Amino acid sequence: MTTLSEPTDARVIGSRLGLREQVGQIWAYRHLLLRMVRKELKVKYKNSFLGFFWSMLNPALYLVVFWLVFQVLLQAGIPNFPIYLLSGLLAWNVFSTGLSSAAVSITMNGALVSKVYFPREILPLASVGAALVHFFLQSVVLLAALVAFRYDVSFAHALAIPPALVSLLLLTSGLAIFLAAANVYLRDTQHLVELGLLAWFWMTPIVYQQQIIASRLDGKSWEWVQWLNPMTSVVLVFQRGIFNVVSTANSGSSVRPIADTPGAVLRILPSGMDAGWYLAHIGAVALVGIVILILALAFFGRVAGNLAEEI
Amino acid sequence: MAPAIQISGVSKRFRLYHEKYQSLKERVIHAGRVPYEDFWALRDVSFEIEQGETFGLVGHNGSGKSTLLKCIAGILRPTSGEIRTRGRLAAMLELGSGFHPDLTGRENVYMNASILGFPEREIDAKFDDIVAFAEVEEFIDQQVKHYSSGMYLRLGFAVAVHLDPDILLIDEVLAVGDEAFQRKCLDRVHQFQREGRTIVMVTHSADTVRQVCDRAAVLDHGELITVAEPGETIRVLRERLFPGEALPESADGELPGFAAAEGVEGVEGDETPPPLDPSRDQARLRNLLARILDVSLEYPGSTERPYLEAGDPLIIRVSFKATVELDDFVAGIAIHDDEWRHLFGTNTHLLGMDFGTVSGRGAIEFRIDSVPFLDGTYHLTIGLTNSPDTLIYDWWEGKIQFEVMNPSRDVGTVRVPVAVTMETELEPARARKRRRLSAS
């Protein structure tokens, strides 16, 4: 006969879920989170011949297209463009794939949500987790490129990358939890997310350089608006650490619709900023991320008790 | 010992939108005036379930029993009130509901256990048992989309019961699967009971409540009607299900639902709604001049099995004690099906027997050479009366059941032996023609 576990503290199911209880439940179900991430990855590439190569092919295709459009056609003139693009794109992809799959994570798992109890926050978090795994897979491509070209990264600035990744995850998780719950009530959310992400992508200096925005806003009183986009700060850290070219002699042709530098210098990243400046920006993103996460959890806690019914 | 589950003042409101506006366009068009109605699935329900108890939640459809189970599981949260549960909890609201068709059986076992909140090392230790219980050894590394529905169910059940939950929540799952699987499930439930685990099950089968539960709660339109022993629960449930249709009390003391002396018993066919558990009425009329001490059933044709098969003999042995001398003693039996339709009844008077004067202890045997019923649970009623059927000495109803299994493929309630022969015009004619052809 198996012994019963000691009567532990009672679990209380009240009308609402407190923040502390929510976090406690997510922690208690952390092994489920890992399982869900594994499941998401496994199911995604089950029965596909190329499997995980697909997640590496995605940035490769972006690379080819953007290189053609921006370097060849528009003559943007960024040296080592593949490395510039990938360093920002990889960070963006965590945000983008995380959010778009999180938005449908609860509605797609309706059978599960209505029949089994587990902290539902796990579902959007698993989407973010899977996006993180893709990030590491795609990083392999970038690392291979860096090694192949014996590219000089800035180790001093690269130190800001892990904190940047953490704050990116905080931000993404908060939005993911909010969107997942919102989509149960309003199915438009998933479509709005797709459109919103498209716009957001072009508002973030990933394909073009941040200094284009900076120079347009230079000296204006509302210069600060560019920092309202937390993804700008995140992407800059990755670019500064990996791409590591602040400015370069402008080798582009005379036709430069995007590279607007008047002199012989093409400015790409903020100049003269040390790791501390980047860390301060990342700190701000982390703060925003935490606030969004707390608000999202509070929203989720309010509606979680009805998700099973509303699906 | 603290109760395993405390339900205090739980209410659950659902907002029923007349139309569900889930898209932005519809929300905008109907801005602020989406018509809805509040529907209270549960209203101020409070009771406790003790540790080690097997507890039934019964009620008709829409009574709120499943909503309550979902609240206990944490799938839904009450609108007000709270539920305290002590110990590890596993809910089986649908077997294999956590399964993903593209994952293998092995992966799904781990996944399912994680969803139920159990750590991986625990699954490692029990994995082989789970697979053996589910009888899917050869298929465990195949994707579950290739499983039969039976394999799917067995694996789902196996995972849930092997994880040693302190509290097991079951929602009608015992009603699925083949007979063998159901028996296996029931065995497992009994094992859980012996081990002192708490079981809460939603059911609308009176049989399940009677056979398995220690206590049950009756819910009706979201309100708790009673928490009681199974017999009382079933009585209350029947009363709620068929309100205002209580058995009429015959003026002349004729007993409805029982083989009456004159054989002019009213039609007990389909048009008569299933009566309330009539034990109350008859029980009230009992004078106990003779008492039924015990009723035992013997299955001479199937000593190994706890059930009969259609055509098996059945012996009903009634021991009784008459406290005074009775000179018009009649013993009767009646058989009802699970919907309390009267299938058969007889008594010693109708059978032309006269016992003379009866007193003291005695026993009487009814022998049925061949039970003609097909599948089902049948309820046996025993009555001791006088021969004009105006007095009831003692009356047992709803206490004794027997099960009949149907090994054949016949359908219906009663087995009627059938022999088949066939003749056709065509076939011999063709055969003759063929013979002629081959002859030429």
Short description:
The complex is a heterodimer of chains A (311) and B (440). Chain A is mainly alpha-helical.
Give an overview of the whole structure.
The complex is a heterodimer of chains A (311) and B (440). With 311 residues, chain A is mainly α. Chain A has one domain. In chain A, 68% of the residues lie in helices and 3% in strands. Chain A has a two-stranded antiparallel ribbon. In chain A, helix 2 packs across helix 7 (122-148), helix 4 runs antiparallel to helix 7 and helix 9 runs antiparallel to helix 12 (230-243). The longest helix of chain A has 36 residues, at 275-310. Chain A is globular and about 65 Å long. Chain B is α/β, with parallel strands linked by helices. Chain B has helices at 24-29, 65-73, 105-115, 120-134, 149-162, 179-194, 206-212, 230-241, 279-285, 426-439, and strands at residues 5-17, 36-49, 54-58, 80-85, 89-92, 167-171, 198-202, 215-220, 223-228, 290-298, 308-309, 314-326, 329-336, 342-347, 358-368, 376-386, 392-405. Chain B has a 6-stranded mixed sheet with strand order 5-6-7-3-8-9, sandwiched between helices. In chain B, strands 11-17-16-13-14 form a 5-stranded mixed sheet. Mean pLDDT of chain B is 78; it is low at 244-280. The chains are: A mainly alpha (311), B alpha/beta (440). Chains A and B meet through strand 1, helix 2, helix 6 and helix 13 of A and helix 1, helix 2, strand 4 and helix 3 of B.
